[in-house]
Amino acid sequence: MNEQLQPLKKPTRTGKAGRSGTQDDIVYAHIFEAILEQRLAPGTKLSEEALGEIFGVSRTIIRRALSRLAHESVVLLRPNRGAVVASPTVEEARQVFFSRRMVERAITELAVEHATAEQLNELRQMVRDERDSFSRGDRGAGIRLSGEFHLKLAEAAGNAPLISFQRSLVSQTSLIIAQYESGNRSHCSYDEHMQLIDAIEARDAAQAVSLMMHHMDHIDSKLNLDEESASDDLHAVFSHLLQTKKRGSSVPAKG
Amino acid sequence: MNEQLQPLKKPTRTGKAGRSGTQDDIVYAHIFEAILEQRLAPGTKLSEEALGEIFGVSRTIIRRALSRLAHESVVLLRPNRGAVVASPTVEEARQVFFSRRMVERAITELAVEHATAEQLNELRQMVRDERDSFSRGDRGAGIRLSGEFHLKLAEAAGNAPLISFQRSLVSQTSLIIAQYESGNRSHCSYDEHMQLIDAIEARDAAQAVSLMMHHMDHIDSKLNLDEESASDDLHAVFSHLLQTKKRGSSVPAKG
DNA sequence: GATTATGCGTTTGTATACAAATAATGCAAA
DNA sequence: TTTGCATTATTTGTATACAAACGCATAATC
Predict the structure, then answer these.
(1) Which Pfam families match (chains A, B) (predicted)?
(2) Nearest chain A alpha carbon to B105
(3) Domain residue limits, chain B
(4) Which of A84, A141, B80, B192 might form a disulfide with B215, Cβ 3.0–4.6 angstroms?
(5) Which residues are paired to B104 by β-bridges?
(6) How far is CA B241 from CA B119, B168, B177, B238, B247, in A?
(7) Model's pTM, two decimal places?
(8) How many Å apart are CA B219 and CA B35, to the nearest integer?
(9) What nucleotides of chain D have any atom within 7 angstroms of a protein Cβ?
(10) Of residues B79, B92, B103, nearest to A160 (C-beta)
(11) Is A71 an 8 Å CB contact of chain B?
(12) CATH classification of B90-221, choosing from 1.20.1050.10, 3.40.50.720, 3.40.50.150, 1.20.120.530?
C-alpha cells in the first residue's frame, strides 16, 4: 500500500520550482499516462494527499492537475468526495465518437487548406514514433501518440476552438480505447495515418476526408461497444460500484 | 477606486458555506456578467486580491473562477502576470464563428430528433425572458440569455461533449458580440429563436438547420469584423498592446 | 541625456493549517 | 443476525502565510 514512487524531479523545492506551471504539467501528464497504461483502472480513487506525496508537491498542484483532467472528462470530480478515474459508459463513448467524426471532418478539410510542409513533416515523424511504440509493445504510449497525431492535425487546421475541443475528445477517446478495445491485435492506425498525410499533402480534400471517416470507422469497429463489454474480470465488471472504494472487500471471494 | 460592492452572500463564513461549489459559481457568474455588461472592458486586469475582497472570499475561490473563465477563453491567464479580460481579435472571432456553425448544425439536427415537449417549453420561456430583457434595455442580460438559449438547445440535443464545447463557444460569442456589435439596434434574435423552436417542434430538420444557419449569418452580419472595429474608446483600441505591456511606450501620445 | 543597473513594492505561486463534510467503525437494540 | 445510530477517522474545501517573480522607480554610469 505504501510503496512510494520516486518523486520525479522534486528533491529541492526551491531549486527548480522557479519555472511556474511546469509542475502542473508533469503531474497531469503522469496521471494521464498512468490511466492510458491502465495502471490506474477506471473507478480508481485519486486521493489528493496520496498523489501529493507521490509527486512531492502539495495538494494545491494536484488539485490543479485533477481539475484539468476533470475538464477533459478523464477523471470525475465529485464534490466533497474526491476524484476518480472516469469509466465512460457505452453511451458516453458513442457521444464522443459522434463529436469526433464531426470535428475530424472539419479539421481534415481545414488541414488540406492550411497545413504547411513543416507541419506535414512533423506529422510523419509522429506516425513513425507511434509505429515504434507499438512495435516495442508499449501499448499505452502507442495509444497516446496516436491521439497526439490527431491533436497535431487539429493544430495544422489552425482553428483555436477546434484544437481545444479536439484535445478533450482525444483524451476521452484514449480512455475509451484503453477501456473497450477488444483483443490485443495491433492497432495499425499508423498506416492509415500515413495515407491521410499523403492525401493532405496532395491537397485532395475528398480523399482525405474519406480516409479520415474510414479511420474513424476502424477505430469504432475495434471497440466492444455493442454490449456492456463482457469482461472476464470481476473487478472491471463492478468498477462502477467500486468507485466509492471499499478496502479489499471488492471481490466477495469469502463472504 | 476603492468603492466596494457588498459581498453577495458572504457575511457568516460558516453559516452558508456548507454548500460547496456554490461560491465558485457565484463569483464566476458575476465576473462573466460584468464582462458582458462591459463594466469590465477587454484588457482590464483582474487582480485576485481585489476580487477576493469584493466578493468576500479568499483568493482560492477567485482563482478557481478565473481558471474556469480562462478555459472558456473569456479571460486570459498569463503565468506570473495575472488575469485580464480577453479581447478577441477579428481572426479569433472568425474562428469561433466557424466552429459555431459546425456545432449549431449538428445540435439542430440532434435536437430535431431528441427534443422533448418539456424542453421545447423551456426553450420558449427562455426566449420570452430574452425578449423582456432587451425591451427593458438590459443589453447585457439579453446577450447572456440569448447565449443560454443556444446552450439549452445543446442540452436538448443530448450529446455531452457538444454541450461542453457549446458552452465555451457561447461564452466567447457573447464576449465578441459585446465587443464588436455595431450600433445599438435591437438584437431581434428572439424572433429567430422562436421560429427555430417551431421548426424543431415540427421535426423539420431541413427547415430548422436552414433557420439556424441564417441566424448565424445574421449574428455575423451585425458585427464589425471587416475592419478592426473602430471603437471610440482608446482603452479598447489599444488593449491588445496593453496586454503584453510595454512600459508606457505603447501609446506615443506624448513622446 | 540616454541607457542600464539595482532596490522596492506589489502580485502571483505554492504550501500548509484549520474547518466542514463524508465515509468507516463499533455498539446497541430488535 | 441484522439494522439503525452514534462516534471516530479520513478526506476534501477554504483561508492564509510565506516565498518567488514581476513591474516600477530611482539612481548610477557611460
Answers:
(1) FCD, GntR
(2) A102
(3) 13-86, 90-221
(4) B192
(5) none
(6) 45, 25, 21, 5, 10
(7) 0.83
(8) 19
(9) 11-17, 19-24
(10) B92
(11) yes
(12) 1.20.120.530
- Under CATH, which architecture does the A13-86 domain have? Orthogonal Bundle (1.10)
CB-based contact, B137 to chain A, within 8 Å: no
Give the span between the Cα atoms of A48 and B218, in whole angstroms: 48
| Cβ contacts of A164 on chain B, cutoff 8 Å | 73, 168
What does the alpha-carbon distance between residue A129 and residue A146 come to, in Å, rounded to a whole number? Answer: 9
C-alpha cell at A189: 492506425
Q: Which three cell numbers stand for residue A91?
A: 453511451
The Å distance, CA of A44 to C1' of D5, is 30
Residue A255 CA and nucleotide C26 C1' are separated, in Å, by 20
How many Å does it take to go from CA B57 to C1' D15?
9
Residue A79 is nearest to which of B20, B64, B95, comparing CB atoms? Answer: B20
Instruction: Using a CB–CB cutoff of 8 Å, tell me whether A165 touches chain B.
Output: yes
How many residues does the structure list for chain B? 255
Closest CA to A48 of A82, A17, A22, A75: A82
Query: Residue-wise pLDDT tens for chain A (255 aa)?
Result: 333 343 343 333 333 333 335 788 899 999 988 887 778 888 899 999 999 999 999 999 999 999 999 999 999 999 999 999 999 999 999 999 999 999 999 999 999 999 999 999 999 999 999 999 888 988 778 888 888 999 999 999 999 999 999 999 999 998 888 888 776 555 567 889 999 999 999 999 999 999 999 999 998 888 877 655 444 444 444 444 443 333 333 333 332
Q: Do B164 and A168 touch (CB under 8 A)?
A: yes
Tell me whether B204 touches chain A (CB under 8 Å). no
